[in-house]
Amino acid sequence: MTKKIHLISTVLSLPLLALAACTPSTPSASTSPAAEKQSVGVVLDTGGENDKSFNEYTIKGAKAGADAAGLGFAYVASAGSSDYEKNIETQISEGADLIVTVGFLMGDATAAMAKKYPDTKFVIIDYAYAPGAEGVDPYTTELKNVTSLMFAEDQAGYLAGVLAGCVSEAGKVATVSGMEIPPVQRYVQGFQAGAKSVNPSIVTLNQYIPDFNDPATGKSVGQSFISQGADIIFAVGGNTGNGGLLAAKEAGKMGIGVDVDQYLTYPEVKDSLLTSATKNIDVATTNAIQEFAAGQLKPGIELATIASGGVGLAPYHDAESKVSQECKAKVTSAQAAIKADPKITGVK
Q1: Distance, C-alpha 303 to centroid of its chain
Q2: What pLDDT is recorded for position 21?
Q3: Which residues contact 336 (CB under 8 A, 6 or more apart)?
Q4: Phi, psi (deg, nearest 5) at residue 123
Q5: Average per-residue pLDDT in the chain?
Q6: Domains (ranges, CATH) in the chain?
Q7: What is the Cα–Cα distance from 17 to 275, expressed in whole angstroms?
Q8: Rounded CA gap, 97 and 108, in Å?
């Protein structure tokens, strides 16, 4: 059976919410008799609530959606992978009707808890469940209470690659990547395809680093690529990738951020950023919670694309004058081409 895919229609701007209003879940909050209304419980991956990436933007989007729908809201951060299931259990015991989990590494724990609590709805960011051995869609059987919010990273990566391929003077660009998992691979492959669409002879370097929170290694890898002649670094590895961006800044080279607009979240390198390849994580999360509140949240995959406004490039900000009109036009043309044929990124 074919996996269900629902495209997300997004609104690209939301009011920023003070994260101070988002209070971590605590066991003492579990017995409030007034909490009869439905509630959303977010379980974060490691990295904390102020990681300037997935965790922070999931909280922002989840709280926006819960507030708009009049739902209760709480979140809890995980210190390590051993906390995932325990934290989900805690949120459910405290009355959460919808659990939101964050990131690829939480896939197994989310599936286990979804099977254990079939009457609780689950949304997981950036993880899709594959059909079983006989091709059975798990979203129609054991995971029919789960919705996966996915993003076409290859499309955003392709646009970043087109820009890098056009701007690069050295004819050599690089990606400093985190764990070799599908979302990161799609970014890398899309970036390389985009760069080569502009300059078929361009050299594309890449290294996967098995940790998303190792900026020291990311910086070392970035410095190595720069010493090999790369003049643009695309950081595809969370805090690890941030090390690569710092290496680019310190060497007087250009960087491209990832997932969120890193001009806003990593100001230390903003003057060396061309742009960021973005996933509108907060918007996708808000939409999913509003669907839940309206009784319209469906099991399966909701895919954010360039066509739906769910992925794309951040503004050029300080690089506006550094990017030629020719390169800007190439990015615009690539956006239109992807909308017409998503397969041009070369990633399945």
Answers
A1: 12
A2: 40
A3: none
A4: -125, 130
A5: 90
A6: 5-151+281-304 (3.40.50.2300), 153-278+316-345 (3.40.50.2300)
A7: 23
A8: 20
Q: Which two tokens stand for residue 76?
A: 């809890």
264 half-sphere exposure, CB direction, 13 A CA radius: 13
| pLDDT single digits (tens) 1-16 | 444 444 443 333 333 3
Q: How far is CA 26 from CA 31, 124, 303, 337, 343, in A?
A: 11, 21, 32, 48, 46
- In whole angstroms, give the CA distance from residue 303 to residue 340: 16
Measure CA of the first residue to CA of the last residue in the chain; give whole Å.
18
Task: Show the tokens assigned to 147.
Answer: 């919705």
pLDDT at 36: 67
Rounded Cα distance between 79 and 144, Å, is 29
Cross-strand pairs, 41: 74, 99
The amino acid that residue 8 corresponds to is I
CA distance 274 to 163: 9
State mean pLDDT over 208-221: 95
Copy the structure tokens of residue 2: 């074919």
**pLDDT by residue (tens digit) across 300-333?**
999 999 998 899 999 999 999 999 999 999 999 9
The β-bridge relationship of strands 232-236 and 72-76 is unpaired
CA–CA separation, 281 and 283 (whole Å): 6
Angle ∠(340,344,345) on CA atoms, nearest 5 = 120
3-state helix/strand/coil string of the chain: CCCCEEECCCCCCCCCCCHHHCCECCHHHCCCCCCCCCEEEEECCCCCCCCCCHHHHHHHHHHHHHHHHCCEEEEECCCCHHHHHHHHHHHHHCCCCEEEEECHHHHHHHHHHHHHCCCCEEEEECCCCCCCCCCCCHHHCCCCCEEEEEECHHHHHHHHHHHHHHHCCCCEEEEEECCCCHHHHHHHHHHHHHHHHHCCCCEEEEEECCCCCCHHHHHHHHHHHHHCCCCEEEEECHHHHHHHHHHHHHCCCEEEEEECCHHHHCHHHHHHEEEEEEECHHHHHHHHHHHHHCCCCCCEEEEECCCCCCEEECCCHHHCCCCCHHHHHHHHHHHHHHHHCHHHHCCC
Which residue in the block uniquely carries the two structure tokens 């909490």?
A: 35
